[in-house]
Amino acid sequence: MKFVVWVLANALALGAAVWLLDGITLDGDTDRDKILTLLGVALIFGVINAIIRPVVKLLSLPFIILTLGLLVFVINAAMLMLTSKIAGDLDLAFHVDEFWWTAIWGAIIISITSALLSVFEPDD
Q1: What is the pLDDT of residue 108?
Q2: Pseudo-torsion of CA 90, 35, 1, 103, nearest 10°?
Q3: CB atoms within 10 A of CB 4
Q4: N or C terminus of the chain with fewer C-beta within 10 Å?
Q5: pLDDT at residue 124 is higher than 70
Q6: Element of type H or E holding 42
Q7: Can you give the pTM of this predicted structure?
Q8: For the chain, what are the domain ranges?
């Protein structure tokens, strides 16, 4: 159950970024196609954030401290760009146009939305 809520929270956060930013696009013929694409992208995004992001944050920890945590936004944007690349390779219609400023703002929107949605996440 927690996994389903986690994927849905990622999908809603990514959907918010698609809705608010012109540079992040999600294509599909029907609403059903868009929802399935968004769920697939949310799964990819979640796996990237669970496996790759901690390694990158650990390796860049001195720079995160040096920038007072602002580098975390850049790391989150890089994870969003990686998600866009992998989604494109898997023929999912999700695309982030550019790193500056689209991916940065997208990462901020996703972080805020995920934090708000984590309130509804079930406890262990």
Answers
A1: 95
A2: 60
A3: 9
A4: C
A5: no
A6: helix 31-59
A7: 0.89
A8: 2-120
